[in-house]
Amino acid sequence: MKKIKQLANKINIPGAISLLSLLSAWTAILLLLSNELRLSVVMAVIAFLLDAADGLAARKLELESEFGRQLDSFIDIINYSLLSALVIWKEIIPGALGAIVGFIVIITGILRLAAFNQEGCITKKGITYYRGLIVCHMSLIAFIFLLISRFVQLPEILIALFISLFALLQLSDIKTRKSGALLFWAPVAILIGIVGFLWL
Questions:
Q1: d(Cα 65, Cα 154) in Å, to the nearest integer?
Q2: Which terminus in the chain has less CB density within 10 A, N or C?
Q3: By CB neighbour count within 10 A (0-12 exposed, 13-18 middle, 19+ buried), where does 135 fall?
């Protein structure tokens, strides 16, 4: 009981938002596997918005912690890497090739998050950068290829190569600017949800 109380204190409000984000992503996965793609995209967008909100809450309430950062990274594996991999395997490249590409997305995402937890960000001239593509970019890339696959018939091997390349870029040294611009990303995410619901 004492351990549970200690854990609850560590989770606090930002952690609770993170767990709601995880619940949304889990719901998106269940909907995807139940062939409810449109609703799955909507729940994935909600998961993203909650994931963005937890960091904002932690900063505003001054509740940032190492535990919170680790929790957020573990949840990101489900919210972005696993969900993207399942979308790739089920909707974009069904079959063995899609399973392989999905695994590449998952393993590169896990390695990227593990490295980030150890190394952190890069700051140059007052600007903060992530190392490599970040895992939520893989969700965006998967969504773009999902839309493309609905309107254009591309060879599966070509799609597999492109997605695998983007996945590997998560482990690269390219700099991705860290942006807290929720005023930009929140409307973009909502637009993705609307597009997904109407056109998928």
A1: 45
A2: N
A3: buried
The sign one gets for the Cα dihedral 80, 14, 131, 185 is positive
- 180 vs 122, residue with greater confidence: 122
Strand partners, 163: none
Confidence (pTM): 0.90
Mean pLDDT, rounded, for 173-198: 76
Tell which residue, 42, 10, 63, 80, has the closest CA to residue 198.
42
Give the β-pairing of 122-124 and 127-131: antiparallel
Mean pLDDT of all residues in 20-26: 97
Let me know the angle formed at the C-alpha of 66 by 48 and 132, rounded to the nearest 5 degrees: 55
CA dihedral 101, 106, 107, 108 (to 10 degrees): 90
CATH architecture of residue range(s) 2-199: Up-down Bundle (1.20)
Identity of the amino acid at 78 = I
Question: Is 144 strand, coil or helix?
Answer: helix
Domain boundaries, the chain: 2-199
The CA distance from 22 to 27, in Å, is 8
| Rg over CA atoms, the chain | 17
